[in-house]
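2024-03-11 09:14:02 DEBUG pipeline.ingest accepted 1 chain
2024-03-11 09:14:02 DEBUG pipeline.ingest length=223
2024-03-11 09:14:03 DEBUG pipeline.predict start
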Amino acid sequence: MNGPKLVIFDLDGTLIDTVALVVGAFSFAFEQMEMVVPDEKSIRATSGLSTHIAIKRLAPEANDEDLEKLLTIYRNEYIAKTVVSMREPLFVGARHALDKLNGRDDFLLAVATGKPMRGVNRVMQAHDLAEFFTSLQTPDDNISKPHPDMINKAMARVGVQKRQTVMIGDTSHDMEMAVNAGVGAIGVDWGYHEVEELETAGADIVVSDFDQLLAAIDKMTEV
């Protein structure tokens, strides 16, 4: 590929380890509303979607008022637990991989996440990551995954074409978004969804650690 390449990262389950926080906060919200608590597999399946859509999928029979209450309780509990633990931790190897990519002139980095911008900014500040990314795409002003809106806007922001872009994520929603946008799709196996789900959703390759990820990025973006 000629010119700069764009590497787009998901956050939750890809760069930051939030599985326990998310599952715990959703479970707490349903308990507080005296509703049937979804099992962990169901909660993990919604990762990558906007929180509004995730809540609707987990409580399909709830009315709008109860959905809003669930959403508020979930967000408050998640933030409270994040404050107690100080931050949502980066996966081991994530910082090194970002440093390596950021140090190369032929790569640009971006984020495309189901996390609201408030949460993204919290992560950027906690880990001093803002300098790495050319744009932060969230559901606040984009259509939620798997619609390609976030990828399209990230590409437009830096003038990079589809053939020069790869999406990295841990869920089928990330892979489907990449397929819908017509860009490369790299799955990671340390997040919310299983390898088979990633492959079925269109992953070109699934990696097991950040060293493999760096090699996969090079392979998929080589001239």
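2024-03-11 09:14:41 DEBUG pipeline.report The chain has two domains: 5-17+88-220, 19-84.
2024-03-11 09:14:41 DEBUG pipeline.predict end
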